[in-house]
Amino acid sequence: WTGGSTHTIRFRVSDETDAQLAAWVNATVDGVSATVYAGPVPLGESSVAWTLPSTTSTVTVLVAVADASGLTASSSSAALAIDATPPDLLAADPADGAVSAKVAGPIVLTFSERMNEAATAAAVAVTPSVGGMSASWDLGGRVLTIEFASPLAAYTKYIVTVGCAARDGSDPGNALAGCPEAPARIRFTTEIVAPPPIARAAA
């Protein structure tokens, strides 16, 4: 889960006699407990909206209920991770400021943590336009490789922009560090490609 985002806690209760029960929903964040909801709930499924803290932390959720006779029951979630740290673009190949970059590519971008692969790949733009591009990720979801359908132009300055739609793998995702004011940009110049040799035959 992404720090500061709102999520829904769902739980189901039942009782043989009462039509509703008293319920308490408590969240324990890094050992500190707070009440998310306290009040009556009907039998069946109920849901409670909860805005997460804006800090990277670990949370467990406890739901407790009591009927009119004072009988109680409770259930706790597994530990859940809250990620409030924006991801960083750690490295790029070609690097920012590189000269003589290979016209065949590829461009390889390494991020500080697992990314939302579809959103991040779609946020990458190259100018001037290069036509078709394809994206692939390593198994850890941190290294994005951009391949080109045709070679880049020789001795040309390119800018690769990773836009602010790039997100890490939390739900719904932290935007890239620097956003929205300064999306990540890498500038490089491609190599000079010598023309192929020409063979001349003399009679």
Care to describe what's here?
3% of the residues lie in helices and 48% in strands. With 203 residues, it is an all-beta fold. A hairpin with a 5-residue loop joins strand 12 and strand 13. The longest helix is centred in the middle third of the chain and has 6 residues, at 117-122. The mean pLDDT is 94.
Low-confidence stretches: none
Rg measurement, Å: 27 Å
Q: How many β strands by DSSP?
A: 15
Order of helices and strands: EEEEEEEEEEHEEEEE
Main pleated-sheet profile: 5 strands, antiparallel
The amount of beta strand, in percent, is: over 45%
Helix % is under 10%
**Structural classification:** mainly beta
- Broad shape: rod-shaped
What is the fold's blueprint, element by element?
Blueprint: E1 6-13, E2 20-29, E3 32-42, E4 44-51, E5 57-66, E6 72-76, E7 80-82, E8 89-93, E9 98-101, E10 107-111, H1 117-122, E11 124-127, E12 133-137, E13 143-148, E14 157-162, E15 184-190
Parallel strand pairs: 9-15
Antiparallel strand pairs: 1-4, 2-3, 2-5, 5-6, 5-7, 8-10, 10-13, 11-14, 12-13, 14-15
Q: Brief description of this entry?
A:
The chain is built from one helix and 15 strands. The protein has 203 residues and is mostly beta strands.
